[in-house]
Amino acid sequence: MQILIATDAWHPQVNGVVRTLVSLAESLCRLGLTAEFLTPDGFPSVEVPTYPGLRCAVPSPREIARRIEQATPDAIHIATEGPIGHMVRHYCVARGLPFTTSYTTRYPEYISARFPIPEAWSYAYLRRFHAAARVTMVATVSLMQELAAKGFRNLDLWTRGVDTDLFKPERAIPLDLPRPRFVSVGRIAVEKNLDAFLALNLPGSKIVIGQGPEEAELRRRFPEAIFLGQLGGTELAGHLAAADVLVFPSRTDTFGNVQLEALACGVPVSAYPVAGPRDVIGSHPVGVLDEDLRKACLGALSISRAACRAFALTRTWEHSARQFAGHVNTVAINTFRKDRVAYA
């Protein structure tokens, strides 16, 4: 089966959506399936005002149609709700083609954090966007329940995995920083709630990995923190494995892949007891969830690193890819191979 995945999030962006899609494609290939991506590459773009350095594609309907038909997919999946996702959705609806979507980002909360736009308005748009999909995939049970309560339908589970060959304790690099080392990884933006971590009175070192629009302000307010910038691959794995606790202060992430990446490195997690951490950690002895984030950070220091690694070994990308393939198989089509629709 050849699957076309439409996404507004792609390289050079570094985020959970991009990492998930790349890992998914590799795992699908091992299952004998092919994933092709319809991305912002080749389209003109504009800078997103609230995200300096982040650009948004401006695709044309004609080129979107051409790329879809050139790919001759057996199934279409829309990974994001941006301009590319919107136009691919329009293409499919206009031609009566079934497709799947995924809900990966809490845009209503992120938008309302920057603009005086009620979350209800954004949810109304997203509800309409996903209503046309045969299946809308979400990463956790709690998010499924939350979206169902908001009127979303045709929801099903698509969990995430971790590359346990890349992220492992043996990757730890020597760091000349006082222990314990508390690290946070992700985009440095208001919705990630990093100031809740950086304001804590903690022993040892506070380390931040990532970039984003709030970086300069947080550097100014918290000069004792160590900001390492954007890291990836073995470099990220090495720094994660050298940490003592991953601090995940976000209250809005739908999952948080970095939690599994840290656990695979043998590093326990501290977080608030909210959706995302609650689904990943739950009652498993691999992290501490508490409304008192400092208490969670200090409590995580006593957790077995071996237990964290063992837990991560049960969360594979192959299992995630099989879930995804099962959902996509419900919309498998032969429209493009048998009777291609000429684009206007």
Keywords:
344 residues; alpha/beta; Rossmann fold; 2 domains; six-stranded parallel β-sheet; 38% helix; disordered C terminus
- Overall number of structural domains: 2
Order of helices and strands: EHEEEHEHEHHEHEEHEHEHEHEHEHHHH
- Text of the CATH class of the largest domain: Alpha Beta
Distance between the termini: 27 Å
Percent of residues in beta strands? 15-25%
Rg over CA atoms: 20 Å
Approximate helicity band? 25-40%
The number of helical runs is 15
User: Could you give the count of β-strands?
Assistant: 14
Which word captures the global form? globular
Oligomer: single chain
Largest sheet: 6 strands, parallel
CATH architecture of the largest domain: 3-Layer(aba) Sandwich
Helix/strand class: alpha/beta
CATH topology description of the largest domain? Rossmann fold
CATH superfamily of the largest domain: Glycogen Phosphorylase B
pLDDT averaged over residues: 92
The low-confidence parts are 338-344
With strands numbered from the N-terminus, the spatial order across the biggest sheet is 2-1-5-6-7-8
